[in-house]
Amino acid sequence: MILASTVLQTAHGTFDVATHGADGPERCLSISQGELGKDGTAVRLHSSCVFGEALLACDCDCGPQLATALDEINRRGAGLVVYLYQEGRGAGLDLKIRGMERQRLEGINSYQAYSSLGLPRDLRDYSLAAVAMKDLKVSKNVTLLSNNPSKRGAMEKLGYRIVDQVAMSYQVSRRAYDYLLMKQSEGMHTLDFDKIDFVD
């Protein structure tokens, strides 16, 4: 159900924002614009990343992806970002930081760091996104704004049909190159490096 809602003016456009919840204490945030019931509505499932979004970490692309998704929705005049509080691919902030320290000390990537901590690569649960999309009466036929194949699978499990998947193009620090390469080679993300602008 929708728990609270308002209208927010941002650098990316004006959006309706709302919090959503079900039976438990978990919450998610919807950031939307326009008519969401039409086939092909643009949807992004986005997990929180305090380092990439608030602190602008140079080796992370979460902030640029979120900004690009909001820009794309504003360009289309309609669409939705479901913002899920799933820091560290669902592992939580403590384990995320421990993994980052393993990466820093041992020169390994984030998948390897999670494995060394006895964690799977990805612990995220997208079921709360279905609550938000139902609340907002989102079409069952959507355009997915994501490079991540697991998000496509999650949307399909939630009962949505992906009519198009738009690989995100954005600007990011050169220090994120190895991280993106890992996501492409090991995570099978549909990244086109010719469409990503790496800057100093």
From TrEMBL:
Pfam families: GTP_cyclohydro2 (PF00925). The keyword Transport does not apply. Pathway: Cofactor biosynthesis; riboflavin biosynthesis. Residues 5-166 form the GTP cyclohydrolase II domain. Gene3D superfamilies: GTP cyclohydrolase II. It comes from the Bacteria. InterPro entries: GTP_cyclohydro_II, RibA-like_sf. Coiled coil: none annotated. The keyword Metal-binding applies. Keywords: Metal-binding, Riboflavin biosynthesis. Signal peptide: none annotated. This is GTP cyclohydrolase II.
